[in-house]
Amino acid sequence: MGRLDGKVALITGGARGMGASHAELFIKEGAKVVITDILDGSETAKRLGDHCKYIQHDVTKREDWEKVVKETEETFGPISVLINNAGIARFAPWESRTDEDYDQHYRINQLGVYLGMQITAPSMIKTGKGSMINISSIAGLFGSAGLMAYTATKFAVRGMTKVAALDWGQYGIRVNSIHPGVIRTPMTMENPNVDVSLVEQMGETVALGRIADPIEVSNLALFLASDESSYSTGAEFVIDGGQTAKY
Ligand code: NAD
Known about the structure:
Elements: E1 8-12, H1 17-28, E2 32-37, H2 42-48, E3 52-56, H3 62-76, E4 81-84, H4 99-127, E5 130-135, H5 148-168, E6 173-180, H6 186-189, H7 196-203, H8 214-225, E7 236-239
Parallel strand pairs: 1-2, 1-4, 2-3, 4-5, 5-6, 6-7
Bound molecules: nicotinamide-adenine-dinucleotide.
Nicotinamide-adenine-dinucleotide binds at residues 12-13, 15-19, 37-39, 57-60, 85-89, 108, 135, 137, 180, 182-183, 185-188.
């Protein structure tokens, strides 16, 4: 018996990185999963088999969200789990941060999460149950130099999570945020904006002495998606190898 038997999960940014890892684990645990991404995720969905469907989706667009929720319900039934995972991160000093760059972080990392929760909630309300998991970051807990736009959005995600938890607890919807430290994904390892040699070095400074693999975050997402976390809502789940323990 799988820990997610009978559940339908919608995971944004699921073509690669942590989103793809969450999808793979959820399917192993019995869920049916829709992955969405602005990138082509059809190869990922094919690899994950018949219980996975890919839908092209820009999380900043309301009409895309409406289409995704409708198609997910038509394919697999009402949504039980939403992971707002899609995101971008760009380091930039103050003097070179443009309005367009700031706005793009806001639209993808913050507005996308808001739209996802708002447009998915009715599907969960229908069944009287659901788990929303918003991927923030340890950058949503303390300041990180050079990451103004990203940090603003990740703090916002943490706050929005708490409001949604308060508003929707009455419908059986739980809403929690995950705050990863440094994880080995394309965002950190293939990002022209990030010095890759520094990424592994950052791992040496945390209590566990290393950065993490996506599956380690997926295991936490699995707990929050499953009924095992039935009394957790509005909470912050930090997974950072001890990086924030010193703050
Ligand atoms: P990733 O870059 O591998 O995955 C992010 C995905 O989001 C990509 O597939 C990308 O195409 C998608 N995406 C971007 N804009 C989109 C849009 N407008 N609509 C739909 N999809 C879009 O990165 P990841 O590390 O797997 O990141 C997943 C989440 O984890 C992000 O929210 C990120 O901020 C967060 N996070 C990552 C780390 C880390 O160290 N990797 C740490 C903390 C938090």
